[in-house]
Specification:
Blueprint (H helix, E strand, L loop, with lengths): L3 H36 L5 E7 L5 E7 L20 H9 L6 H7 L3 E3 L6 H4 L4 H7 L5 E3 L1 H5 L3 H6 L4 H23 L2 H16 L7
Parallel strand pairs: 3-4
Antiparallel strand pairs: 1-2
Length: 207
């Protein structure tokens, strides 16, 4: 688990990388936002409440990829709510770029358990929930890498949300706890590098 010094280094690293990332990816984010704006009605940025450290809610920001947010919290491959542009943004993870602002604000870390909506967090085993919520949630983590193709996996289920609750969510929680118990600044860097490699070279993505 992170030492006190590593937690300080982790936060400094988050701020530095998020700041540089926003500068470097600013033109891409602006271009993607413009395409979202002209391709379908609705806001460019989508904000959604998630559960953060200490169980406190915060608004997670993404580029909007859907025509509307009404319906299941679970998205599957072929979901009619996802726009054509949204499919590209989700596949390339460009829709996640606004999350760097969440990193700067302190709601997110670059590496940590993915933030969930309250209804799913309430299903965590109590001891796991208490442990996980000691840390900031993150943009990426080993669970995100393992379930990169989650939408395709759930699309094969007759009841995607039930499959998420019964099969995917418990495994994610298990991975969150397992990672945090042995997490270090070095392991965070490794996860981040692996994530960037997978995003840039899709063939490396776990199946």
């Amino acid at each position: 688990m992170y030492s006190a010094v590593e937690l300080v280094a982790k936060r400094a690293f988050d701020i530095t990388v998020a700041s540089v990332g926003l500068v470097l990816c600013g033109p891409l984010l602006a271009a993607a936002g413009l395409v979202v704006r002209v391709s379908s009605p609705g806001p460019v940025i989508f904000g959604h409440e998630r559960v953060g450290r200490a169980g406190k809610p915060f608004t997670l920001y993404k580029l909007r990829t859907m025509r509307g947010s009404v319906g299941s919290q679970v998205t599957v491959a072929g979901d009619k709510r996802v726009t054509p542009v949204g499919k590209i943004l989700r596949r390339t993870k460009i829709d996640e770029l606004p999350g760097l602002f969440n990193v700067l604000s302190g709601d997110l870390s670059l590496v940590g358990p993915r933030p969930e909506v309250r209804k799913y967090v309430d299903l965590y085993p109590p001891s796991a929930a208490r442990f996980i919520q000691r840390f900031r949630p993150g943009i990426t983590d080993p669970g995100s890498l393992l379930f990169r193709n989650e939408e395709e996996i759930l699309a094969h289920s007759a009841d995607p949300e039930r499959a998420y609750i019964d099969e995917v969510l418990p495994k994610k929680v298990e991975l969150y706890v397992e990672y945090l118990q042995r997490a270090s600044f070095v392991s965070d860097v490794r996860v981040l590098v692996k994530t960037l490699a997978i995003v840039c070279i899709p063939a490396l993505a776990p199946r």
